[in-house]
Design brief:
Glutaredoxin; 2 domains; alpha+beta; Immunoglobulin-like; rod-shaped; 5-stranded mixed sheet
């Protein structure tokens, strides 16, 4: 942990590279292959790995060629948990201390050059570059939804009924209907539309319709419509649109003609 904090502090010192750096061993022991005794920029990023540039000052970060990585700017400091580039593939939690954090996400395999330009830079020497090997691999296919506990959404339309032979409308009112709805239902505009555009229509009071003796006076086709729709009807005024073998139920409102125009 001490080594990680020292490495992060070195990274954030003015003048140091913003690129993520390799860790430095606490003790360097003699080995056949020389071991670097200084951190150096990490040159590989894989899909679903964090590759983060950290800076106290804002930067322009450009990738060339475009399309191999996506670069996202976040305000720091912040804590991130996941797999980090150069971290050996293990999941870990790191505190990212820079005020400006630039996350580089692998999109497509290839070699990309990251070009870092401090905002307001006036000298070419202030520009830093780093080649990074992007190992994106194939994008995994979307997982099918296996949640068997989720019931399918019921169809909003479609109460079946024996063929009614045309386009019919039933305006079903009750005592909860507001004045605007009553005015619209009784308006000459609504009556004219129904007369001109339907094969037949009815305006019923719900309490009357639910009285079997009154319903017996109706034509057989309307009795079939009522028997099919009645068990599924919500409370309140309803607009029933009957087209052949299907009954569609909508709340009956002052916009009744507009609803019918859409349905037809």
């Amino acid at each position: 942990m001490l080594t990680l904090l020292l490495a992060l502090n070195l990274l954030l010192d003015e003048g140091n590279s913003p690129f993520p750096m390799t860790a430095v061993p606490d003790v360097v022991t003699p080995q056949p292959t020389p071991v670097a005794d200084e951190p150096h920029p990490i040159g590989t990023v894989q899909r679903e790995e964090f590759y983060v540039l950290q800076s106290e000052a804002p930067l322009f970060v450009v990738s060339s060629p475009p399309g191999l990585v996506e670069i996202t700017h976040e305000q720091g400091p912040l804590m991130a948990r996941g797999r980090f580039a150069g971290g050996g593939g293990k999941t870990e939690t790191r505190m990212l201390l820079g005020d400006h954090l630039y996350f580089v996400d692998a999109v497509q395999s290839g070699t990309v050059e990251l070009i870092v330009i401090p905002v307001g830079a006036t000298e070419a020497e202030q520009i830093q570059r780093q080649l990074v090997e992007v190992q994106a691999g194939p994008r995994p296919p979307p997982q099918p939804d296996t949640d068997t506990d989720t019931e399918p959404e019921p169809e909003p339309d479609g109460i079946p009924v024996d063929d009614t032979g045309g386009f019919r409308v039933l305006l079903l009112l009750d005592e909860s209907a507001d004045p605007d709805t009553l005015t619209a239902v009784d308006s000459l505009n609504t009556v004219r539309w129904l007369d001109e555009n339907t094969d037949d229509w009815r305006r019923w009071d719900r309490s009357t319709a639910e009285t079997d003796g009154e319903l017996d006076k109706e034509e057989p086709v309307w009795r079939r419509i009522w028997q099919a729709a009645r068990p599924a009807l919500p409370e309140g005024p309803q607009l029933l649109i009957i087209q052949g073998k299907t009954i569609t139920v909508r709340p009956l409102t002052s916009q009744v003609v507009q609803e019918l125009e859409v349905a037809k």
